[in-house]
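Worked problem 6 (solution included).
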Amino acid sequence: MSSRTPRLELLWWEGCPSTDEALALLREEAASLELDPSAIEVREIATDDAADRERFVGSPTIRIDGADVQPPGGTPAGLTCRVYRLRDGRVSPVPDRADIRAAIEATLEGGAR
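Solution. The predicted structure is:
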């Protein structure tokens, strides 16, 4: 694995009830990979302009080195709650833990996802 520390971000919107759960998942996965959970950048997206600028497709959004852990496809930017598809096919308000871990590991290994 690389010694470089990836940039871990959680972007959120005030109306999202899933922010705390998503942040807890990201912190747990960061810590399990010996990364500092306190280094996670938590940023509120408060306006439609900011959502457009950040390509923010809903809350919570987790990015590793700028790449979304579950790329949203053609979803438009906006202040909304986000829906994720878990690996077992279920719908969830937070990304699959395995997707978070895989995104961090891929970045640590220096590979593209």
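Discussion: Residues 19-32 form the longest helix (14 residues).
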